[in-house]
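Here is a complete protein record:
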Amino acid sequence: MENYKIMIIKFLENPFLIFFLLLLSLNYSYFLIPKFPKGIPRIILISPIFYILYFLPWCFSFAFLRGILSFFITWITSFKLILFCFNKGPLSLCKNPIDFILISILPLKISIFDEKSVRNTSEKSIHDEKIVDRKYEISDKTSIKKPISDLKDVSQKYEILDMSIYKRYEMEEIFKQPYLATSFRDFWGKRWNRYSSKMLRLTIYDPTNEALKNLGKNTSNLLAIVCTFVVSAIMHELMFYYITCGLCLKPTCEVMWFFVLQGICISCEKFFYAKNWVIMDARISILLKRIFIVFSFYFLLVLPVVREGKNTCEVTK
């Protein structure tokens, strides 16, 4: 038994083996999962991968690195794989394993470029080139000057085609001037951490809203918002658990309550807008909302991390 523990510890201390296991898991997901019916069967088959993604950050002693990996790997990659099980999300657009791996673990997305349009553009360029060549032949026979403008058009089309081929990936936009937010919805939905907001919308908000649509549009929207922020709160609490090295055995749930509180604020704000209730001047309202976000962020999110966080952790935890 002791030899078994020593072997596991040595394995955890080798980051190359850990990432090899990650790559192996993602290749398994890419090649095998699509062969089964979408939905629950795929979720069952991919469930061991979720455990690996949960376990991976524990293999590193640097707490900050644990926090980064818990966000990009444990959280976002898991959500992408869940969407992939239903033929949705960014992974459903991947055409090869390299795309699948890069999109899974990095904040990248396939560039908005249709390969069919590339082929059409290529075929059209070749067709145009033939037309120009034909004009050249005629011009040579009749001693007329060659149409230089046609040459420029064809060369420009080839340049555009080449640039489009090389631009394969785009970075996901994470922040978009959050200090300019005018409402809670604007801050959380469009400006702050747009990357995780996008994953939460696709994984939690949209399915919940669709499932509860019989309750009415406004009711389903409000409940979907609350559910989304509750899930976001749980995932952030998990990140906090990684950053504190798992030493906070009795979590205060301050991090979780921060996001639950924000979800309640957005729901109330949406309700007030639906009723056209105006309590104060818009400029004062915007200022108070920004102050509330900053103070709640500091006291419920920053302070707990500073108080409980560790610089390094024992890998064997």
